Amino acid sequence: MIAGLIDLKRADGEGLATQLTGQLRSLIASGRLGKGLSLPSSRRLASELGVSRNTVTYAFEQLVAEGYLAASHGRRPIVIVDGAGRSDPAGTAASRPTAGRLRLSSWASKLQKTDWPMSYQAPFKPLRPGHGDAREFPNDIWGRCLRRSAVGAARRELGTVNRPRLREALAHYLATSRGVRADADQILILPSAQAALTLIATAVITPGDEVWIEDPGYPGAAAAFRAAGARATGIALDEQGMQRMPGRDAPRLIFMTPSHQHPTGRLMSLARRTEFLRASRPGKTWIVEDDYDGEFQYDSRPVPALQGLDAYGRVFYVGTFSKAMTSDIRLGYLVAPPALVGTLEIAQRHIGLIASSHIQEALAEFIADGHFLAHLRRVRRLYHARRDHLVAGLERHLGEVLSVEVPSGGIQLVARLKRSRADQAAVARLVEAGVVTRAISSLALGKPRDHGLLLGFAAWRENEISAALRTMASCF
Ligand SMILES: Cc1ncc(COP(=O)(O)O)c(C=O)c1O
């Protein structure tokens, strides 16, 4: 009878003994061979299966060693594990760890308490914020760069974590487009901006340190610093972004998005940037500048990065290709303060935050050959028009219920409910009708200070935006 449950494949690369062991183990673990059942003798099972007796003996011995079977000399082996494999021959069910009783590290325990990134699982539909339009990405050109990178792989030296060509290309791009002042070897290439935040937290946060974060702000940043043991304090915003300056109470680190505050889209003025630098003592307070969508400035010339204004090396500059290219590229970067480059490179290897060399080389070529800037120029025009289309539509169709804060750039905007602060209820109502937005109050660090709807425009075509607006108008 047991032989009928076993299916051994002679041509399989896996040996017969290994196959038999695995199949018997699964049958016991799934409960099909129940606790107390006597298996046939090795001689009989071997003959029923048409395999050598050694094959069966090997499988029995292995399963005895793993605790699934008990065997004594001259007797048939007996299953000693309960159905569904839950009984533990070395203990009782009560001694099995359960999620609540696992002894996790303090880092993992903190992760269990943060709800990021699971808190936002919205479907990818208009007007979901946070994305550029992947449909506009020149996949044919990118494909050629990837192919050349793969073909050239045999000629490249192995083991360089941050590829020099990409570092050089990025240093040049960041200097000319964003005003970042950095040598190429200050740039770490990472799988995402989030990886950069984790790396920074690992390198400079000691549990108990205070970190200031814009409120409302980017929840991924709060999650990374909290997981490292930081106390995250939300700092209220005014028209230019974060309004509190560090003084005697200076924190260990300040996280900000000065190009377009996430989520409000506000631009921090040059004067405010300088004020922050003046107030942050080198060696005492680090500043993290997250320039996640700084490529997209529509109404004015881009304000130079805070990093480029800093003469004392106290700013970490973080960027990502998730918005400028597509989020599936999985590439970001960190421009490290000179004094921390060595430490961060070691940490990068320890944690294994290393981006594929193939992709790094392809991107270096994509940038050096001008494709990146050409793509940016094209989508900048497109996103600018989409922003204007969304703003005009909101004012025309929903002007009575929503007031729009028009950002000077970026990929999303905030519309506030004029007669209510119940943004989460509004978001739920809209999702049901098929329009995806995000509640500003859900981006608060503690008790919400601000309310409204975060609406994405960059990822959505004008006809998609118009359709979403019609749905929204019928909902309100
Ligand atoms: C402000 C901000 N920083 C960083 C990121 C994360 O970028 P990445 O996908 O590279 O981790 C996002 C993504 O939405 C963001 O909004």
Automatic annotation (TrEMBL):
Q: What InterPro entries does the entry give? A: Aminotransferase_I/II_large, HTH_trans_reg/aminotransferase, PyrdxlP-dep_Trfase, PyrdxlP-dep_Trfase_major, Tscrpt_reg_HTH_GntR, WH-like_DNA-bd_sf, WH_DNA-bd_sf
Record-linked PROSITE patterns: HTH_GNTR
The keyword DNA-binding is annotated on this UniProt entry: yes
The record places domain HTH gntR-type at 14-83
Keywords in UniProt for this one? Aminotransferase, DNA-binding, Pyridoxal phosphate, Transcription, Transcription regulation, Transferase
Record Pfam families: Aminotran_1_2 (PF00155), GntR (PF00392)
- UniProt key word Phosphoprotein: no
Membrane spanning segments where?
A: none
Residues spanning the signal sequence: none
SMART domains assigned: HTH_GNTR
| Single GO term (MF) | transaminase activity
Give the UniProt family note: In the C-terminal section; belongs to the class-I pyridoxal-phosphate-dependent aminotransferase family.
Name of this protein: PLP-dependent aminotransferase family protein
